[in-house]
Design a protein that fits this description.
The protein has 270 residues and is α/β, with parallel strands linked by helices. The chain has 7 helices and 12 strands. A hairpin with a 2-residue loop joins strand 11 and strand 12.
Length: 270
């Protein structure tokens, strides 16, 4: 259902991360998002070689020529950047002992792996705030979505949220409830708390304790009890080997496995 005219363009959607499998389902996010409301898109896609390697060790060589055409013609973003942000070691910051260790099958350290994600998110937020300044008006909400996300169930109407809203996380947590960094739906007042996590390391002097081993744990500490988990946001990731249905709850597996892969290059309407 589309929002009322007064709500149009009150949402900024930051699509950030490595594009990886985005080209397999290029119109999927647009279809899902614009079922709820018209939005302003901001694309900041990581292009470094390491960012194309997922946590399972799979590599997806993205077709940036095709992706560029789709984004510019279908999404018509306010900002579209392909970025490769080099990791700069902060010698004045003492990190936890587990941060320099290898994180996953990407063969990057925990700090380096998560830095690429957080620095790209931070850059995109800067573009959003610059546009707000130029138009002399702030967005009401800012969302962050990874480009390789697949919603195997219709995205619920999450307009007019009061608290930062996340899907239910399933990995990287030592507590309940578990947040997940793949998606975030934020009222404007809470956006900076999420989008500027990279600054904690960039401007760190002394001990760096604000980012934990997983970004999900960092988010939990950042927002404490001031957030909500929406279990109706049902999604997974598109991997080089196909749709990753292994991470979804057992009760939702059939729905995930039934996602029409053969229609992935076309608009998918529920």
């Amino acid at each position: 259902m589309m929002s009322k005219k007064s709500d149009l363009r009150s949402i900024a959607v930051s699509i950030t991360g490595a594009p990886r499998t985005f080209e397999r389902h290029p119109y999927h996010l647009k279809t899902q998002i614009e079922r709820i409301s018209e939005v302003d898109y901001y694309f900041c896609l990581s292009t470094s070689d390491t960012s194309q390697r997922d946590s399972k060790g799979g590599i997806q060589d993205a077709n940036f020529t095709f992706i560029d055409t789709v984004i510019r013609t279908a999404y018509r973003p306010i900002v579209y950047k392909n970025v490769s942000i080099p990791f700069l070691h902060n010698t004045k910051c003492n990190v936890r002992s587990n941060m320099p260790v290898i994180f996953d099958k990407s063969n990057q350290s925990t700090l380096h792996r998560q830095w690429e994600t957080l620095a790209t998110i931070r850059m995109c937020f800067t573009h959003i705030t610059n546009h707000e300044f130029n138009r002399r008006m702030m967005y009401s909400y800012i969302w962050r979505i990874r480009p390789d996300i697949l919603f195997y169930h219709q995205l619920p109407n999450i307009l007019h949220i009061v608290l930062p809203t996340f899907p239910e996380g399933r990995i990287g947590c030592n507590h309940e409830p578990c947040l997940n960094d793949h998606l975030a739906f934020l009222p404007r007042y809470a956006a900076a708390q999420y989008f500027t996590i990279a600054d904690d390391y960039t401007y760190c002097r002394g001990d760096y304790n604000s980012m934990l081993y997983y970004i999900a744990e960092t988010l939990f500490e950042k927002f404490k009890s001031c957030f909500t988990i929406d279990k109706t946001i049902r999604y997974t990731l598109s991997r080089p080997f196909g749709i990753d249905c292994a991470r979804v709850p057992q009760a939702e597996k059939f729905e995930c496995l039934s996602f029409p892969v053969h229609q992935s290059l076309h608009q998918y309407i529920f």
